[in-house]
Amino acid sequence: MAYPSVTAPYGLLPINLIGGQVFAGATRQIPIASNSATAIFYGDVVKLANTGLLVQDTGTDAATPVGVLLGCSYTDPTYGKTFRQYYPGAVNASDIVAFVADDPDQLFKVAVVSGTTVVTYVNRTSVGNNALLVQNVGSTITGNSAVAILATTATTNTYPIRIIDVVPETAIAGNPGSFTEVIVKWNVPTTGAVGGHQYTQATGV
Predict the structure, then answer these.
(1) Number of other CB atoms surrounding residue 193 within 10 Å
(2) Using an 8 Å Cβ cutoff, are 137 and 144 in contact?
(3) I need a surface site. Which of 64, 161, 197, 199 has the fewest CB within 10 A?
(4) CA 38 to CA 89: how far, in whole Å?
């Protein structure tokens, strides 16, 4: 079967870990505050607030992620214990728990965009460069994120994410050195700067 055409961003999808280690679906359960207003979608970037609770990370060049959201659970007053693909926002419950892929060594597949949601490509030469996150609002129909990375990459050491490979199946016909999806990892924050995984930030949250 042919690889599906990438027509829109879909967030950051965990695939495996650095060194080819298997991602077995392990997540950390992190609470979300009752009535937290912001919806967080499957594959959205999230971070720890200084309250110890989870919030969406809307950073682009200086995101400080703890990982990505892979669903949530809470007790609904009508339906009881509820599991959802995404956190819809404004949930009045005292036991909201997010499932977060929080491993600093996690690798993700992500789409490349030219600005917001228009899918474009990077060349193989972008491997090893750092990238900016593009923060789009996810879908309340599918529950999926629309976060992507910007096609313009750089060696800027404060950017939060590193391209470590391309997805070969997304090579553009007639332009085999260009790819619409890449594999990325979180960067380690540089001294005195933000932009990288929270667990590796020596100054804490």
Answers:
(1) 11
(2) no
(3) 199
(4) 5
Handedness of CA 173, 176, 178, 182 (dihedral sign): positive
Number of helices (H) and strands (E) in the chain: give both, helices first.
0, 16
Q: Which residues contact 146 (CB under 8 A, 6 or more apart)?
A: 8, 9, 10, 11, 41, 117, 136, 137, 138, 139
Structure tokens at 174: 């007639």
Does residue 66 come out as left (phi exceeding 0), alpha (psi in the -120 to 50 range) or beta? alpha
DSSP string for residues in 30-74: EE--TT--S-B-BT-EEEE-TTS-EEE---SSS---SEEEEEEEE
**pLDDT one digit per residue (tens) for the chain, 205 residues:** 468 789 999 999 999 999 888 888 899 999 999 999 999 999 999 999 999 999 999 999 989 999 999 999 999 989 999 999 999 999 999 999 999 999 999 999 999 999 999 999 999 999 999 999 999 999 999 999 999 999 999 998 889 999 999 999 999 888 888 999 999 999 988 765 667 899 988 777 7
Indicate if the alpha-carbon torsion angle 7, 12, 16, 17 is positive or negative.
Answer: positive
Cα–Cα dist 96/88, whole Å? 11
CA pair distance 56, 35, nearest whole angstrom: 14
Whether the CA torsion 15, 111, 31, 158 is positive or negative: it is positive
Query: Distance between CA atoms of 155 and 28, rounded to whole angstroms?
Result: 31
